[in-house]
Design brief:
The chain is of the alpha/beta class. The protein has two domains: 4-56 and 103-176 and 275-352, FAD/NAD(P)-binding domain; 62-99 and 180-271 and 353-360, D-Amino Acid Oxidase, Chain A, domain 2, CATH 3.30.9. It contains eleven helices and 18 strands. The strands form four sheets. Strands 5-4-13-14-15-12-16 form a seven-stranded mixed beta sheet, with helices on both faces. Strand 9 (135-141) and strand 10 form a beta hairpin. Helix 2 (48-56) packs across helix 9 (304-321) and helix 9 runs antiparallel to helix 10 (326-355). It binds flavin-adenine dinucleotide.
């Protein structure tokens, strides 16, 4: 008999886990709260570990990447307090050379690979009860309101930062969500900021607030507004657009004006507070959490999608290597993954300073350090090859 697993959540972690489970000989069933599969999404940088996981999951060929071509004129720009723009290191210039994708690109590639897996939309778990040989889940169909109980050999909670599975099985959000006193708003621009190249990236990083425009090769850019605040609750009251206009009102710049005007017209956007999920253990008995539900590193780490892919792929490998011992499989899986996750959770604090400096002093330091890094980096190919023709590695291309 093939073992059955309930996977809660049709995001990157859920679909990666479903592919991993299927490869390990299990039958996954996915439930998703939304009435249909989401598409689009914000800019995501996919790091080497994520690209390797995509290969391991067999989705690499289906994964559409959108790195802007420096050769075709794409650049990264930083805009200073006087409104002057200068070439800068962009997100894609980080060590490891992340690939530019939209979150929806990863999800589309995973979706192609889960053909044949049963997916139930508008369905959520309401109660989870563990027995010695199986786990019983009370599921609710949001369309009809009908509730029914079904048994599984394993439940995989891949339902994001505010996971219901975590709340039902491990305890309230307050026990695991750490608050970062910061907000984000991410959305797709209809068109590039006037006077910039179609695939240019733009960074305005001021004390406590920042605007990032991520240029893409074959798509309009996406925007990220992020700011620091100690009153998170207050941010969710009133009109979001008005609040963002007020937060960014002190930056009188055409880039900020264009981004804020675009938000008015954007078909959808993500507006949320920033947290990390910290758990001493990601599984108990026959229930395991994967991705943001277990270890959300947050957007500043830039490793959430990468770790979700890797977590799902590794879960499949662990179950394959321990076919008759679930506890051993989950122990091995967590032992293998935890150092990677912990390291990136820690470094996210420093990366937050790169995204949105905490003060004027941090803003100045950031500017000096990145300027230095850019100069070193643009000299490196010349030194390495000794040739004057070597291309400078700056801007958003790879
Ligand atoms: C603005 C922004 C920029 C980012 N940039 C990067 C980046 O550059 N690089 C990177 O690697 N990562 C990045 N990330 C992080 C990355 O997008 C996430 O870590 C990753 O998508 C998490 O995937 P997930 O599947 O764990 O969770 P989610 O994407 O949250 O998916 C959870 C799924 O579960 C469903 N669900 C929720 N509750 C229930 C329920 N009760 N029942 C059934 N289904 C449910 C949801 O509808 C959703 O489909 C960024 C994140 C943000 C917000």
């Amino acid at each position: 008999m093939r073992k059955r697993a309930l996977v809660v959540g049709l995001g990157i972690a859920g679909m990666s886990a479903a592919i991993g489970l299927r490869r390990a000989g299990w039958t996954p069933v996915i439930v998703e709260r939304a009435p249909e599969r989401r598409t689009g999404g914000y800019f995501v940088g996919l790091f080497p570990e994520g690209r390797q996981a995509a290969v391991d999951l067999g989705i690499a060929d289906a994964l559409h990447t959108r790195n802007p071509e420096r050769a075709a004129g794409a650049n990264s720009w930083s805009v200073d307090r006087r409104g002057g723009r200068r070439p800068a290191l962009g997100f894609l210039d980080q060590p490891g050379g992340p690939s530019a994708v939209l979150r929806g690109d990863i999800e589309a590639a995973l979706w192609q690979s889960i053909t044949g897996v049963e997916v139930r939309f508008a369905t959520t778990p309401v109660a989870i009860t563990e027995g010695p040989a199986e786990v019983q889940v009370l599921l609710e169909d949001a369309g009809t309101g009908a509730q029914y109980t079904e048994s599984f050999d394993l439940v995989v909670g891949a339902d994001g930062m505010r996971s219901s599975v975590r709340r039902i099985v491990f305890g309230p959000d307050a026990d695991y969500l750490t608050t970062w006193n910061a907000m984000i708003c991410a959305f797709q621009l209809k068109e590039q900021v006037p006077s910039y190249g179609a695939s240019d990236s733009i960074i305005i990083a001021r004390a406590e607030r920042a605007v990032w425009v991520f240029g893409l090769a074959d798509h309009a850019p996406t925007a990220l507004l992020t700011y620091r605040t100690t009153d998170i609750q207050e941010q969710f009251s009133g009109s979001r657009v008005e609040r963002l206009r007020s937060v960014f009102s002190g930056i009188d710049d055409p880039v900020v004006r264009h981004v804020l005007d675009s938000l008015d017209e954007a078909p959808d956007h993500l507006f949320d507070s920033v947290h990390q999920v910290r758990m001493p253990r990601w599984s108990t008995g026959r229930v395991v959490l994967v991705g943001d539900a277990a270890w959300c590193m947050n957007l500043y780490s830039g490793m959430g999608a990468t770790s979700s892919l890797r977590g799902g792929a590794a879960l499949g490998v662990a179950l394959q290597e321990h076919p008759d011992d679930l506890a051993a499989a989950l122990n091995a899986w967590e032992a293998g993954l935890r150092p990677f996750v912990t390291g990136h959770q820690r470094s996210a604090r420093l990366k937050q300073q790169m995204f949105v400096p905490s003060s004027r002093r941090a803003e100045a330091l950031r500017s000096v350090l990145l300027g230095l890094a850019r100069r070193i980096r643009s000299r490196r190919p010349v030194m390495e090859t000794g040739g004057p023709q070597a291309p400078a590695l700056s801007g958003a291309s790879r």
